[in-house]
Amino acid sequence: GLLLAPQILGFYHELADPSVVSAMCLVHQRFSTNTFPTWDLAQPFRFICHNGEINTLRGNVNWMHARQVLNYDTAGFVEIGDGLARFEIPKGFKYLNAKQSQYVLHDLWGNPPSETLGMIFPEEASDIVPMTWAIEISYDEDGHVKDDDAKDIKYDELLEQMQEQIKEVNPERKKQGYPTVELTGWASQPYYDDKEKKLHWAKKILFETDSTETLNYNIRILGRKGVLVLNAIGGIEQLGEIKSKVNPVLAGMNFKEGNRYADFNESTDKVAAYGIVGLIAGGVLAKTGLFAKIGLVLLKFAKVIAIGAVAVGGAVVKFFTGKKDGDNA
Predict the structure, then answer these.
(1) 201 CB contacts (<8 Å, ≥6 apart)?
(2) Which residues contact 38 (CB under 8 A, 6 or more apart)?
(3) What is the mean pLDDT of residues 115-121?
(4) Cα 5 from chain centroid?
């Protein structure tokens, strides 16, 4: 245990106080033996209690997560948001609803809590702990984004502006315990489909804790009052696969009638403070602020499994995680 019997009086000072009187004394000397004793596991036995296996609670919770089966939709149409859009699940993909996506992003992958409308996975993704690349869906209702500037974008200059903006964000990332990040270049130059009002591009990102670049693949679908945000999450080596498979996802995701870009009402609807350039460089950066990190992650079972940037036992996979410096279980 943490104390030997002769040390108890020195720890519980009230036991040596002559004004303290008790009609009963209960001594419990059983301490768990499956975990090395630490102060954060110690209990003040001033009340009747039972230590038992309390220090295995986190491990038990993780094992419960490991047995929780994800219920994907694998075909047909699913509604995105409250009547906002609908997604026709293409062959080779499956959709996970918003509640279960929160569980994957936060509980399994270790990201800070955030709003999500669901996730899209390749069909081979596990129904327990998905280890593939994925596309997260969210919605920014900042107003109707005018696309007049789409044809005038100078991508090299835009990249330089984005790199400077990310440098400005880094001190706040560091302050909150997250690794700094560097935008090293385009993985795929922005492309805007004026007819479908769909925009996509990919960035190469390097985190200070990593030796290899990671991929941030962005898809935006413009609507009447805002933008559907689809972020494809994966390793830089998966860029080719994501690019080759993203078209059916783009085709299947559309605003419902009344929310489409063409439904914009100039007299009643708000216009966003930025256009296509701002959507790529500024507006979304302000929204996402602390970029989620694509790191090297292990399944999180008890304390022996950690989120980190080093390979342990060869069981490392590319995941999407908001890991902070020094995080373990």
Answers:
(1) 186, 188, 189, 190, 191, 217, 218, 280
(2) none
(3) 95
(4) 47
Please report where in the chains the tokens 């962005």 appear, as a residue: 218
- pTM score above 0.70: no
End-to-end CA distance of the chain: 23
Residue located via tokens 């509604």? 79
- The predicted-structure confidence for 249-287, as pLDDT tens digits, reads as follows 999 999 999 999 999 999 999 999 889 988 888 643 433
Tokens of 53: 């296996």
Among 151, 245, 262, 143, smallest CA distance to 197 is for 262
Furthest-apart CA pair in the chain: how many Å? 86
- Kindly state the tokens that stand for 190: 């922005």
- State how far Cα 30 lies from the chain centre: 41
Taking the C-alpha atoms of residue 253 and residue 227, their distance in angstroms, rounded to an integer, is: 12
Token pair for residue 189? 């130059």
Query: What residues have CB less than 8 Å from 92, skipping those under 6 apart?
Result: 122, 123, 245, 248
